[in-house]
């Protein structure tokens, strides 16, 4: 098998991140993903900022095939519905109501394809008081509570990666897998609604549950204090982090690694409750200890004392780490007459199923003929459709 999802065909109506990422994960698992794009430029990430061939597009669109369709036209709708009739999955991340307005929503598609799984990703779902609001990643993060545990409320600046976009794409892929399993039992497809706000809250299940139970509002440093995680700079200015968690042996190992075993019994820090209570003071004390020698020295000491630790890498240093290299987490995708893409491997390994090496991200409309000719469009018809702006 070329992946767990070999034989599954996905039609992606996705732009930017959430839809394309969810569909790409399905492609990574072996599904055939047909990316349906507007012939006038396609996915906006194709021309993001600088225009042309961009990493933002590569990151979310490997392993796919591209078909261009002007969906508001009668011909574009007709072709899409013909493709959807033979699809297993349709995945979109347009605003609520757009698919219905175009006449290609779940109710329409399922009339001729009752086995179709139709997954829509939106900010907050297809109904409710916010249904008409535009929603991008930051909106999903704010509504779902992520921003409150990432940024300093006294200096409110959004930070971090696109959590709402990526998490909703991941939950969409999970939802599709669940629906495929259900269809294997019932023979029926179904509709799936995935939201950015809901995906964020699902990701924040532990702090959200704790807040509901205690009434206490978590902030950016709540979890580090609870999990006993710290970050320090060595004498060479290179950062590293440790995660003590709960075993007492890690605390004792940290003190020995830092060269200060006498601190093990310090009443401010000798128990986990005391370390949580005096988190900032502990951080200050050990920050002074670790100013003494370079990071490489401390990595050796922490490893020798079995303390959970890591250098804090930037995203170029990551790929130079010997363990990351051993895991093969960087892959290269060759392209004809274009630079090789260096990117990140699909992370799951299966004992029996081969994960296919991904295809290069498609050129806009590259696969029009491959999928439209079986529908009865010959070269002349394709040329006519192109002239009319349908493809």
SSE topology:
Elements: E1 9-13, H1 18-28, E2 32-37, H2 55-61, E3 64-68, H3 74-85, E4 89-92, H4 98-102, H5 106-112, E5 117-122, H6 137-144, H7 163-186, E6 190-195, H8 196-203, H9 205-214, H10 222-227, E7 229-233, E8 239-243, H11 248-257, H12 272-277, H13 279-289, H14 295-304, E9 309-311, H15 322-327, E10 330-335, E11 338-344, H16 368-372, H17 379-387
Parallel strand pairs: 1-2, 1-4, 2-3, 4-5, 5-6
Antiparallel strand pairs: 7-8, 8-9, 10-11
Describe this structure in words.
It is a single chain. The chain has 391 residues and is α/β, with parallel strands linked by helices. It folds into 2 domains: 9-203 and 327-387, Rossmann fold (3-Layer(aba) Sandwich); 222-311, formyl-coa transferase, domain 3, CATH 3.30.1540.10. Helices cover 40% and strands 15% of the residues. It is built from 17 helices and 11 strands. It has helices at 18-28, 55-61, 74-85, 98-102, 106-112, 137-144, 163-186, 196-203, 205-214, 222-227, 248-257, 272-277, 279-289, 295-304, 322-327, 368-372, 379-387; strands spanning 9-13, 32-37, 64-68, 89-92, 117-122, 190-195, 229-233, 239-243, 309-311, 330-335, 338-344. It has a 6-stranded parallel β-sheet with strand order 3-2-1-4-5-6, with helices on both faces. A 3-stranded antiparallel β-sheet has the order 7-8-9. β2 (32-37), α2 and β3 form a beta-alpha-beta unit. The protein is elongated and about 85 Å long.
């Amino acid at each position: 098998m070329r992946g767990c999802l070999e034989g599954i065909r996905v039609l992606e109506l996705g732009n930017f991140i959430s839809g394309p990422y969810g569909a790409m994960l399905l492609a990574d698992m072996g599904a055939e993903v047909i990316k349906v794009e507007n012939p006038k430029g396609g996915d906006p990430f194709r021309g993001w900022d600088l225009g042309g061939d961009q990493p933002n597009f590569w990151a979310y669109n490997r392993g796919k095939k591209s078909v261009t369709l002007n969906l508001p036209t009668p011909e574009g709708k007709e072709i899409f519905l013909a493709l959807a009739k033979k699809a297993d999955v349709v995945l979109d991340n347009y605003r609520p109501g757009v698919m219905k307005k175009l006449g290609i929503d779940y109710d329409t598609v399922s009339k001729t394809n009752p086995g179709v799984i139709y997954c829509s990703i939106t900010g907050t779902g297809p109904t409710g008081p916010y249904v008409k609001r535009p929603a991008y990643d930051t909106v999903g993060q704010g509504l779902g509570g992520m921003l409150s545990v990432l940024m300093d409320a006294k200096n409110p600046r959004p930070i971090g990666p696109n959590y709402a976009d990526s998490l909703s794409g991941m939950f969409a892929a999970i939802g599709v897998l669940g629906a495929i399993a259900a269809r294997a039992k019932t023979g029926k497809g179904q509709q799936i609604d995935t939201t950015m706000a809901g995906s964020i809250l699902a990701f924040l299940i532990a702090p959200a549950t704790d807040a509901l139970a205690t009434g206490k509002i978590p902030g950016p440093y709540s979890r580090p204090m609870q999990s006993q995680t710290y970050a320090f700079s060595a004498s060479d200015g290179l950062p590293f982090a440790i995660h003590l968690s709960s075993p007492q042996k890690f605390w004792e190992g940290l003190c020995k690694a830092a060269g200060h075993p006498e601190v093990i019994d310090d009443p401010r820090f000798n128990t986990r409750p005391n370390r949580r209570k005096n988190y900032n003071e502990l951080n200050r004390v050990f920050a002074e200890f670790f100013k003494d020698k370079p990071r490489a020295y401390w990595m050796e000491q922490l490893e020798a004392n079995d303390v959970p630790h890591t250098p804090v890498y930037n995203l170029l240093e990551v790929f130079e780490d010997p363990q990351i290299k051993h895991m093969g987490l960087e892959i290269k995708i060759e392209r004809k007459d274009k630079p090789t893409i260096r990117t990140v491997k699909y992370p799951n390994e299966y004992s029996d199923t081969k994960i296919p090496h991904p295809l290069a991200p498609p050129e806009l409309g590259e696969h029009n003929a491959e999928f439209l000719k079986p529908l009865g469009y010959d070269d002349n018809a394709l040329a006519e459709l192109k002239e009319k702006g349908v493809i």
